[in-house]
Amino acid sequence: MSYAQIIGWGYAVPSRIMTNHDLEKMVDTSDEWIRTRTGISERRIAGPKDTTGTLAIRAAQNALQVADLSPSKVDLIIVATCTPDHPMPAVASMVQDGLGASRAGAFDLNAACSGFVYALSVASGLIAGGLHERILVIGADTMSRLVDWSDRSTCILFGDGAGAVLLQRSESPTGLRAAVLGSDGSGLSSLYIPAGGSRLPLTPELVQNRRNCITMKGSEVYRFAVNAVTHATNQALSAAGLSIDDVDLFIPHQANIRIIQSAAKSLKIPPEKVYSNVQHYGNTSAASIPMALCEAVEEGRVHAGANLAIVGFGAGLSWGAAVVQWGVDTTPVPFSWWKSVVRNFHRREAVVRSFALRTQRRLDALRRMNGINEA
Questions:
Q1: Quick one: which of 107, 128, 347, 350 has the most CB atoms within 10 Å?
Q2: Is 246 in the same domain as 366?
Q3: Do 347 and 205 share a structural domain?
Q4: What is the per-residue pLDDT for 183?
Q5: Domains in the chain: how many in total?
Q6: For the CA atoms of the chain, what is the radius of gyration?
Q7: What b/e sequence results for 143-158 when a residue is b if at least 16 CB atoms lie within 10 Å of its CB, and e otherwise?
């Protein structure tokens, strides 16, 4: 039997930091009000040159660096996002091009804040089924582009970022041990963006009324989230044949510290086994779990053999929980100058390859036009 082992991980965030004090100048709120209700102190905000795609590429490059793997070895790229650069094509195709992953297929998956768990489950199944050898799974979102910055109930919550893991087929029984995915579409209006899709295409009036921004019923989402996290985590652990006591680290979606604490209390998981970085990044949607995983690794909270319980929840309403057994050493590898040179070469090669392909298409188009004119 084959398993999907995580062999690489990485994340990327914009350089701009927006603190609660910055928000005090924009809406009627305060640092104390935000921190006591959400646990958030600051968040990263995409700059003019940042997009979901650029952040996803950087996170993927870091994951490949940890795995010491060339982009040409990747078979498939899955990007979980609800904030694509364009309605089409997929962000994953942009990542494929940006990495120079010439052999890889690519597609996006939208399950909002649950997206990373969904994507991890899909990728693990494709590897276990023998269809692919290595898959990049990326959670990336620029939620600041969808926020109504005059609405203090939502603008304080969200931030931007990307996190990635590289899965590889292994005969060792590590990686995803169980997953539970769920949805309740009757709760659609609890957390959604009303306009901008095929049901309600954008018009100047809709934009003026901010119908293209996030709308949320906070109390409904809170109740749903605590229940969904508790039930889904218990179901995933049961499917994996484990108990709460077997969990070494609990990594929930980083939406709100109150939700995290309430769910952990309901699950009877002690605080020392709960990981949270919501204070620094806010809610980064599909990026929050892989970003938290990467920081947990950096802090020495993850080790070979550890059982991780991860759980996401969000718009849909949707939820997903997974149990992952970590299978590789997380000790940082000493810096190697020649590997750095190789990585830089691969990145430059990707840029040149993309330019060459675009140029070839233009030349082919010109030749066809000349042929038509001559005829």
A1: 350
A2: no
A3: no
A4: 97
A5: 2
A6: 21
A7: bbbbbbeeebebbbbb
Q: Which of residues 289, 304, 325 is at a domain's end?
A: 325
Whether residues 142 and 191 share a domain: the answer is yes
* Residue 307: CB atoms within 10 Å: 18
Q: Does residue 17 share a domain with residue 111?
A: yes
Average pLDDT for 44-50: 97
pTM for this entry: 0.92
Q: What is the pLDDT of residue 355?
A: 79
Same-domain check for residues 144 and 176: yes
pLDDT tens for residues 309-334? 999 999 999 999 999 999 998 887 66
The pair of structure tokens assigned to 262 is 């309430």
Sheet holding 318-325, edge to edge: 175-183, 318-325, 307-314, 249-252
Q: Which residue has the tokens 């994507």?
A: 119
CB atoms within 10 A of CB 134: 23
161 and 250 in a single domain? The answer is: yes
**272: alpha, beta or left, given left = phi > 0 and alpha = psi -120 to 50?**
alpha
| Cα-based distances in Å from 159 to 100, 140, 181, 332, 340 | 28, 11, 25, 28, 30
| Domain extent for 345 | 334-375
Does 271 lie in the same domain as 180?
A: yes
Per-residue DSSP letter, 82? S
Statement to judge: residues 317 and 338 lie in one domain: no
Q: How far apart are CA 22 and CA 19, in angstroms?
A: 5
C-alpha–C-alpha distance, residues 152 and 125, integer Å: 41
Phi and psi at 333, nearest 5°, equal -85, 135
